[in-house]
Write a structure and sequence with these properties.
The protein is α/β, with parallel strands linked by helices and 268 residues long. It folds into 2 domains: 35 residues, no CATH class; 227 residues, 3-Layer(aba) Sandwich (Dihydrofolate Reductase, subunit A). The chain is 26% helix and 26% strand. The strands form 3 sheets. A 9-stranded mixed sheet has the order 6-5-4-3-9-1-10-13-12. A two-stranded antiparallel sheet has the order 2-11. It has a two-stranded antiparallel ribbon with strand order 7-8. The longest helix has 11 residues. It starts with 10 loop residues before the first helix and ends in a 6-residue tail after the last strand.
Length: 268
Amino acid sequence: MEDPDPRVSGGGIRQLRDAGLEVEVGVLRHRAEQLNEAYLKHRLSGHPFVILKLAQSLDGRIATSSGQSRWITGEPSRRHVHDWRSRVDAIAVGASTVVSDNPQLDVRHLPRRARRRDPRPIVVDGQLRAPPEARVFAREGAIVAALDSASPERQRMFADAGVEVWRFGERNGRIDLRDLTLKAGKGGMTSLIIEGGGRLAAAALKDGIVDRVMIYVAPRLIGEGVNAIGQLDTVELDKAIRLEQVSTRRLGDDLLYTADVRYPCSRD
């Protein structure tokens, strides 16, 4: 396939042909595009390829009513998640996840020889509710995404702690995640995993930034608890977000459900 970047498009092919090599373009094009999907989206739109990852019970809960969430899925699923973390440029969570779980958002649970770089952590925290001393903010390259209206004092606290503060205007009381992914793309991030919680997952789907879902389903029934995805305001069934190119995989006792997201229409 040709590189869509106009700065280099066709250059490598010309060099090969000038060297006397036969080059055929378009062979297995769809598979080539799949292999390069993050790069292609970034070059064509300026936004990273976004995966929404959820680890939930069979009845769609990511935590109990008391907030306990460790661990819903088993060790094979956690290893798989960390392998995917090692493949992307950034990982995003909401403020509630930081407050309740105090995650590190780095790569663990893999053999040392298999480890790659850690993704840059992004905490979406409009009013800067999370504590600056949380473990994720001690990570090199940590980012907090806040609204312009967030307390200047809180912004200084994060900056003084070495955290990069991204500020955004307000849309319907929150950060427009299309603005966030565009800024991430401008910073060279071509791939991003969103790991929760439920409100951030819903906001990402509402803003139309999710390209693929990876849902790890554990054989547990929790009943009343925390929903994996918050309110999507879906009233008519034919307006629901559809999932296509669906595949499933067993990971121990868990089931991984992977699918591409197809939106019924543009958000606007």
